[in-house]
Structures are given as structure tokens and as C-alpha cells.
Amino acid sequence: MVNAGIQPWLFEVEPYSGESLSHYLGRFRHANHLTVSALGVATGLGGIFIKRLEHFHLNPFPTAKQIADLASYIGIDPQKVQGMLPAQGVAIKLEPSRLCAACYAEVPYHRLAWQYKQTSGCEKHRLRLLSECPKCKKRFGIPALWHGACNRCGMTFEAMQIMQKSF
Ligand SMILES: [Zn+2]
Ligand SMILES: [Zn+2]
Prior knowledge:
Shape: globular
Helix content: 25-40%
CATH topology of the largest domain: 434 Repressor (Amino-terminal Domain)
Bound molecules: zinc ion
Number of strands: 2
Strand order of the largest sheet: 1-2
Radius of gyration: 16 Å
Order of helices and strands: HHHHHHEE
Structural class: mainly alpha
Largest sheet: 2 strands, antiparallel
CATH architecture of the largest domain: Orthogonal Bundle
Number of helices: 6
């Protein structure tokens, strides 16, 4: 099937390298003023399915058809949607979401690799990941709802990098 491209009334949102689908869907919905349920209706996949994706609830894993339907609506290649999901069988830490604040300060998005069970730190910065705000201890919510700061005390993710321990 030929991908006809995104619907003309939607803003196309290009995924970042290694971005998690949860974070991407949050950006896409924000850019297009779509709630979880509205995106569920528009794609025909249902709000519960979209919510599952945003919470990393990937068991059962999305089918090729579901991925294709989502990709078709948001106007990107199905391979790119697949690339924002863990490879099947790779263990994911559902919550809390984790953050390398130093990475986030460079480009503000949630990297899928931070949720891998085997990941404990950022190889690039040699820093341990944060799973809660270092100031008020509020655990990070799902990346789909991130806006670059703790949603309790407002400390920015960027400012959190000095609190990350090295390893
Ligand atoms: Zn990093
Ligand atoms: Zn806080």
C-alpha cells in the first residue's frame, strides 16, 4: 500500500533518534491538540490502546497492522514507529520514567534506552539516570506528559544534571 502521507490538516512531527514512542505521541498530540481518546478515535485504534503505548504497556505487543494504522495516520513510515518501540523481548522498566538530564539539556526528549531494564546509566555522560526529581522527590510521570520540568516543584530537567551521580 502506498503511504498517502499525513492528512493535510495535521502537523507532521518527525521522531528524534532513539525517542520513545510515549514521548513522541505526547509531542504529536500536543502539536495537533489531540487528547488520547481523540487520537484513539482518529486512528481507529481506540484510546485504551494509545494509553497503553504511552505507559509502555506492551504486552501484548502491538501488531504490524496496529503499527501500520498508527503510522499511516501520523504520516510517518511504519519502520519509524517500530523504531520507537523496544525490540520484542527486550525488558522494559514500566515506571518510573528515567532521565539523563545532561542528554535532555542537549536535546529535550525521552530516550527509549533509558527504560531498558539493563540500563542503569548514560554511557555518553557517564552519569546515573534519575527516576525522581532530586529536589522534591516526585517520581517522573510518563514521557508523553513531560514538559521539561518537575510537575510538582517546577525544577527544570536541565537544572537536574548537577544532581546526577557519576558511575
Ligand atoms: Zn546523558
Ligand atoms: Zn520537584
